[in-house]
Amino acid sequence: MNYRHAYHAGNFADVHKHAILALVIEHLKRKDAPFLYADTHAGIGSYDLGSVQAEKTGEWKDGIGRVLEQSNPPAELQPYLEAVAALNPQGGVVRYPGSPAVVSALARPTDRLALCELHPEDAETLRWSFALDKRVGVHHMDGYTALKALLPPPERRGLVLIDPPFEVRDEFERMRKGLVQAMKRWPTGLYALWYPIKARAPIDRFHADLAMLGLPKTLVAEIMIQRGDDPNRLNGCGLVLINPPWKLDESLAALMPWLASVLAPETGASRLEWLVPERG
Fold first, then answer.
1. Which listed residue (122, 163, 204, 249) is catalytic?
2. Domains annotated on the chain, with CATH
3. Which of 205, 236, 140, 218 is nearest to 179 (CA)?
4. Helix segments in the chain, DSSP class H
5. Is pTM, for the whole model, over 0.85?
6. Tens digits of per-residue pLDDT, 155-175?
7. Distances in whole angstroms, Cα of residue 50 to Cα of each of 10, 99, 101, 136
8. Eight-class DSSP state of 59
9. Average pLDDT score over residue span 240-261
């Protein structure tokens, strides 16, 4: 499958992922020292919701579209809304920010972004999108391979987002191996691993495999928009957060039930729990 995110930009999974990503960035900014943001599967940076692809599915209408209809969003959503507004100065949403655009909108002049994208056309689009931003470096290469060169960063703090398109059957295993290699180089880094939820069993196996790695404190944040266990349908999505910032769990506990109720009023649910609790 040749996955193109333009068909899905701004959907419920993007809202969940980017709202959490924005919160993580805000937590990192609480310290003056600069940080690195490394993105293993960066895409093209931002997406036109009026494009043929986006209009064909209309998924954004049940994602960012529903969020922007709300009159009183929680304070924890504000960083994400700021990133959306940065691309849409006239209001509403015409362009949707991918992860690189979310972070670039919130990062400080001293912070740095390393964006990896293997698809040649997407990498070129990404490079042009950030050509004037000296904080951003674009790497046309496999994201898992790139981590070997990027880590550990000179900043000694930051976030690695591992967000593959799940085109291959063994993606969970590739993520696990990529994480192991990355953490050997940078064990104190913050890592966020995104995954789709269709059937529950593969997710449980993935979590069990991660728990056996001897990880530091690790948080799981999931949202479900459909009940049931259907391997042919995207029922939800999740993030595994390794070394999450202090009190991020409290922010997510306030945000995620609200997101679930807005994105799926009748069937939505959220799950927030420690896969590996902080050691006392």
1. 163
2. 11-45+99-276 (3.40.50.150)
3. 218
4. 12-28, 52-57, 64-68, 78-87, 99-106, 120-129, 143-150, 171-185, 200-211, 248-263
5. yes
6. 999 999 999 989 888 999 999
7. 12, 19, 18, 26
8. G
9. 97
